[in-house]
Design brief:
Layout lengths: L3 E6 L2 E6 H7 L2 E11 L2 E7 L10 E2 L2 E3 L7 H13 L7 E13 L2 E13 L13 E8 H10 L6 H9 L1 H4 L1 H4 L6
Parallel strand pairs: 3-8
Antiparallel strand pairs: 1-2, 3-4, 3-6, 4-5, 4-9, 7-8
């Protein structure tokens, strides 16, 4: 079954096949979610069976909305489908656009709606093994340092978010200075 996502082709937003969109590097809609507990963020390690960036650490949840799906509905749905996290109030914090090579001839050129949620470290989760092979809480300074030392362990988009958009995603930390 093809997963049709909103992507721009020839200047118009159309329902296009997700894998084809990535192979062609077309600009498309996406969602990213960061669940935090104080200065810690919940990361997931992408499942080994993912068609791109398998086995890399990334933000709590990320996906593409289905054609015609509301962004918030998509974020809530995917948090359940990937992480088994339910009923966590999400807050939209902004929009990011980036372009990154994700390997195997695929490009993510995303217009991302970014969401945050606050939780506690004992948050109940049920990881979907087809999507996620592990999850961990990590402090933002430790994450920034790890990305600097071993960037190949992290998805390209998480590297971009942490390098260029920390102040938007984690505004409470902006007042205390740089994360790294």
């Amino acid at each position: 079954m093809k997963w049709l996502i909103p992507a721009w082709e020839n200047g118009a937003l159309k329902p296009l096949d997700k894998v084809d969109v990535h192979r062609r590097g077309l600009r498309h809609k996406a969602i990213s979610i960061f669940v935090t507990d104080g200065d810690r963020v919940l990361l997931q390690k992408r499942a080994a069976v993912k068609y791109h960036t398998p086995g890399l650490w990334t933000n709590t949840c990320c996906t593409h909305p289905h054609w015609g799906e509301d962004d918030m509905d998509c974020a809530e749905r995917r948090l359940v489908e990937e992480m088994g996290i339910r009923d966590l109030p999400l807050q939209h914090v902004g929009q990011i656009e980036y372009r990154a090579d994700v390997g195997d001839g695929m490009i993510e050129h995303e217009v991302v709606q970014v969401y945050r949620a606050r939780a506690t470290g004992d948050l109940p989760m049920k990881l979907n093994p087809r999507e996620v092979q592990d999850a961990t809480w990590v402090s933002l300074p430790v994450l920034a340092s790890a990305i600097e030392r071993t960037p190949a362990r992290f998805t390209p988009w998480l590297q971009i978010y942490m390098r260029e958009h920390t102040g938007m995603i984690f505004p409470e930390l902006a007042a205390t200075g740089p994360v790294a």
